[in-house]
## 1
Amino acid sequence: MKKGVHPENYRFVAFKDMSNDDVFITKSTANTKETIEVDGKEYPLVKLEISRTSHPYYTGKSKLVDTAGRIDKFKNKYAKYKK
């Protein structure tokens, strides 16, 4: 490996999926100001919106999106501008 190419500050970091509160720990260089305690040890915390435990591809479950309701709401909102 080339010297000076890769970062030197790898450390254990906790990643938390905010949609289902799953926490996993891995090495990372991600900067964060928050911390979390896991199994009696404190780790820097990185919050995620989606991870392997909540992504539909990995879980096999898809989330239902209310597209019909959103479209009706949009049409009602802008109906007053219609000529």
## 2
Amino acid sequence: MKKTSVMFLAGIITGILISLGLVFLLAPKLMFSVSESKYDFATTKALIEKATPENKWSMPHQYDLQATMKKHGFDVKAVTVYSICKPDIAVKILGADDNRHISAMMPCRIAIYEKADGKTYIARMNAGLLAKLLGNEVNAVMGDAETGSEKILEQVIKK
């Protein structure tokens, strides 16, 4: 093989390795959006619980993970996870055979938790980023879901 061919091949392999490394380093941070709340844990919870139906979303489930862990003998700081849903958005995924596999990520989840610094944080999946990876129809639906869930959170997120 000529020296230029070897250099070219080495460059491609190096580029692929660097790209994979960046994906493994950055992907976990990009998959979730985390924001500090302007309020304490209880107030943040109350405002989200109020804003959800006001924005015409439902909250079919609420999980108190601190209480669940306590039942199993573990002590953790406050963590509540909400499952929120907007049926007119969800039906666009659930009503199409080609998109129904996306239901594994449904309903939308919002986690509220406290850290050792005493502050309250809100975490959710970065639906906008995931939507870009899933195709045109799903992209639009996930975009709608992200816009709606962010509207629910806008009053509590510290800017």
## 3
Amino acid sequence: MSLAGHLIELRKRLVISAAALVVGMIIAFIVADPVIHFITEPIRIVIDKRGDDFAALNFGSVTSAFDLRMRIAFSIGIFLAAPIWLWQIWAFIMPGLTKKEIKYTIAFVAAAIPLFFGGCYVGLVVTPHVIELMWGFTPEGGVNFYSAKEYYDFVFKLMIVIGVSFVLPVFLVALNVAGVMSGRTIIRGWRVAVLIATVFAALATPAADVVSMLMLAGILIVLFFAAAGLSMLFDRRKSKRQNDVLGEL
């Protein structure tokens, strides 16, 4: 295919992806109320415990309520449209890949997507505990007026960060498959991995919320050792194939 043909193909894929995103955003905009109700549950918990005048979700401008809905629509729209725009990316790059690369790419995506969404779910589970714990540090006589924009950004970014962290072990396996890093090299770094997972969990959750921190750190450590074990298994199979070839020679 010529350069012009590639550009036409890219434009086609982008248009389809954009259309899917718009449809996803429309659907998400319609269901924004249940989403807002869900992510603001910690605020209602605070109100029940401390009174109606202690905490509230604050809309500081005329357009901030609409802006919050648009942010929710865009974020959820990306997730709803993910099967379509991921397929468009795959369909664009697949013709240039070998059969072996296609097989590895499919395996990578098949592992990365559920791990990412699993991480986002863990982020949702952790978030209410984080928010509920943080308001406990509000001094007597103080009030918590959460800016709608900042509140949503906090929830969304926490979900994304934890979601991405769940995918990192897949990258380790990909580096092993590519021959960049052996399984033994990965497993030798287990002390560093445990330290990084613990520090990350401590940063992603409040210092006083030990349960959430241990839960998140434990999941990340298990994923690391699973990636290391899988990489060592791949190395063993690769070594066996090489020995078989040498034996035939």
